[in-house]
């Protein structure tokens, strides 16, 4: 089924975002592991795995719409130097993703592709969960202090 050209471009742009997020999260996750923050390592790694699923679903949809997935394009990564940097950078990226998915859903509906809109809505809900997770981490750091927060991540 031939998909709308503009929507295919947007799907490939979302794919680039997801591939970038995977890399950024994996680096942050491994840095946490290196520093001994096992709980944080696992939580961030889980988010990377979620992003891998998003990329997989986008690739499947692009192929279904007879497009060509572009997998060699990454956006600029923001690798943090500290745990608060990780959380801030990742939350910023997720907030951008929420906006991008909302825009893509509107486009999919405009061109009459409800199946793509449903897929993008599924991913959007997961991205909103990632934003919420980061917000909770920021609140915990604020309330416990960084030392208290990090001691709970060991």
From TrEMBL:
Molecular-function GO term, any one: ferroxidase activity
InterPro entries: Bacterioferritin, Ferritin-like, Ferritin-like_diiron, Ferritin-like_SF, Ferritin_DPS_dom
EC number(s) reported in the record: 1.16.3.1
CC terms in the record's Gene Ontology section: cytosol
Binding residues for Fe cation 3: 50
Residues binding Fe cation 2: 51, 94, 127, 130
UniProt keyword Lipid metabolism, yes or no: no
Catalytic activity annotation: 4 Fe(2+) + O2 + 4 H(+) = 4 Fe(3+) + 2 H2O
Domain Ferritin-like diiron positions: 1-145
Transmembrane segments: none
Binding locations of Fe cation 1: 18, 51, 54, 127
GO biological process terms held by the UniProt record: intracellular iron ion homeostasis; iron ion transport
Keywords assigned by UniProt, alphabetized: Heme, Iron, Iron storage, Metal-binding
UniProt superkingdom: Bacteria
Coiled-coil regions listed in the entry: none
Binding-site positions, heme b: 52
Gene3D superfamilies: 1.20.1260.10
Enzyme class of the recorded protein, top EC level: oxidoreductase
Job of this protein: Iron-storage protein, whose ferroxidase center binds Fe(2+), oxidizes it using dioxygen to Fe(3+), and participates in the subsequent Fe(3+) oxide mineral core formation within the central cavity of the BFR protein shell.
Family: Belongs to the bacterioferritin family.
The protein's name in its UniProt record: Bacterioferritin
């Amino acid at each position: 089924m031939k998909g709308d050209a503009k929507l295919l471009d947007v799907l490939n742009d979302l794919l680039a975002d997801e591939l970038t997020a995977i890399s950024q999260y994996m680096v942050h996750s491994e840095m946490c592991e290196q520093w001994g923050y096992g709980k944080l390592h696992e939580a961030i790694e889980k988010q990377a795995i979620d992003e891998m699923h998003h990329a997989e679903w986008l690739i499947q949809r692009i192929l279904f719409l007879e497009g060509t997935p572009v997998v060699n394009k990454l956006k600029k990564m923001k690798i943090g130097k500290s745990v608060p940097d990780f959380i801030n950078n990742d939350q910023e990226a997720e907030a951008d993703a929420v906006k991008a998915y909302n825009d893509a859903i509107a486009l999919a509906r405009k061109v009459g592709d409800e199946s793509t809109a449903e897929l993008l809505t599924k991913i959007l809900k997961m991205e909103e969960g990632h934003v919420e997770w980061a917000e909770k981490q920021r609140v915990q750091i604020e309330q416990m202090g960084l030392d208290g927060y990090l001691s709970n991540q060991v």
